[in-house]
Structure formats: structure tokens, C-alpha cells
């Protein structure tokens, strides 16, 4: 059976996976703790990377190079950008982009992409579509935009105009970037903690635990269908 790397940014986002997981071994590498075992009989390696693009990229590369995962699923929380996305809705990335990196960095230099968008794996998206048919919370498919800043109201309109994302986070495109250059299937699953109407770090912190549970359930559900 395929082995899946589950990558979260924080310990709060990882906690629901660990609660559902039978852990066989824990390995420490690059100041990270990788948990190997099974979730619902699916072989997995789980880790929380810490927030931001570089941390996510480090963890994704180690999942691929050291633990030989067959796919990477990035799961956790995000801020809602599109007005139709509400608190605790699930956003699944059909594609991801950087909102703070010039597009020609990716198209004119390594990895010489045809566009600045990282496409998600079709097989994982298909499984996500089947999961969404009976999901307990609304599921939206579209673009996730990634960058270093926590986006409140400042900068929101610029990102919307340029990329039309459903949601914004700090890790998805970085993990997708690593998977793209390694030829490894990737998908990001995010639950919304804050929006344009309900914005700010305090709102995020209040909703993070519940949103993490919703994202984890979506990720585990679609992986059952994928495997």
C-alpha cells in the first residue's frame, strides 16, 4: 500500500492525526519529529514543520528523501480570501501559488515551470471530490496562495486581484514546490480559521483547534478513498 507523508505547520494541526494514529516509531531529524505508523490502516509518516515556507519545504523534502513517501498531503488551517468561503469551510487546492514571489523566478529559472502555478495531483483531487460528496462541512476547490505574512485586511485585495485564491496560508506552495521538483503527488487540505469579516490573529487562535480537526478529518477521509 502507498505510504503517505502528512505535513502540518503546527502541533495543533498535527494533533488530530496523532490521536487517530498507531505510531510504530519516532525519528528526529533536522530538529523535527517524524512519526511513522498507520492511520485507518494507511501507512503514514506525520510531522509538523513549523510555520513558513522554508520550514514546510525542509519537512517535505525529508518526507520524500528519508522516508520515501509516495505522496504528501499538507493539512491544517488557512485564512479565507474569497468572500464565499466561511469559517470552518474546507478548501482543497487544485493549484497553489506564491503571492510574494515574482512569477518569472519559477518560469525563467529552476524549476522552469510552464506557469507559476503548482498543480495538485489529479488522483488525490479525484479522491477529494468523492469525499466532498458526503463531507460534514462545505468543501471548496480552487487556488491557495502562499506567502510569509499573516494576512489580515492589509494586502487582501491585491492578492485577490492577482491570484483569485479561495484561501491564503504560509506553507502550501512551498510544499507543492518540493513535490513538483521531485515528481511526488501533492495535495493541500485547509480549514478556514479567519476571513475578511472575522479577521485577526486572535480569531485565528480561537478557531485553530476546531479547524485543524476538520482539516484532518477531510484529509483522512480522502486518503481512504485514494488508497
What does this structure look like?
With about 230 residues, the protein is an alpha/beta fold. It has helices spanning about 10-20, 55-65, 105, 120-130, 155-165, 170-180, 200-225; strands at about 5-10, 20-30, 30-40, 40-50, 70-80, 90-100, 120, 140-145, 165-170, 185-195. It has a five-stranded mixed barrel with strand order 5-9-8-6-10, surrounded by four helices. Helix 1 (about 10-20) packs parallel to helix 7 (about 200-225), helix 2 packs parallel to helix 6 and helix 4 (about 120-130) packs across helix 7.
Summarize the model shown.
The chain has helices at residues 11-20, 53-65, 104-107, 122-132, 156-163, 172-182, 201-226, and strands at residues 4-8, 21-29, 32-39, 42-48, 71-80, 90-98, 118-119, 139-146, 167-169, 186-194. It has 7 helices and 10 strands.
Give the topology string: H per helix, E per strand: EHEEEHEEHEHEHEHEH
Major sheet strand order: 5-9-8-6-10
Count of strand segments: 10
Q: Judging from the principal axes of the Cα atoms, what is the shape? A: globular
Keywords:
single chain, 227 residues, alpha/beta, 5-stranded mixed barrel
